[in-house]
């Protein structure tokens, strides 16, 4: 039981770190756009590549939260 709890915590932790990395990447793209290092079309392409993985990670968090409330 303790191993399963630890494994669940580690998976959630790594998902959270990856979500923070995606958000930091999006912020860096917005900063590049603000400083005019990149045009808005290229910035949109870069940001759109990480939107779906971000939504998937948030959906996994939602499902884990709903599952943990049942117990």
TrEMBL record:
Subcellular location, principal: membrane
Keyword tags: Membrane, Transmembrane, Transmembrane helix
Protein localization: Membrane
Membrane topology: Multi-pass membrane protein
One GO cellular component, as annotated: membrane
Signal peptide: none
Transmembrane spans: 6-28
The protein's name in its UniProt record: Cornichon
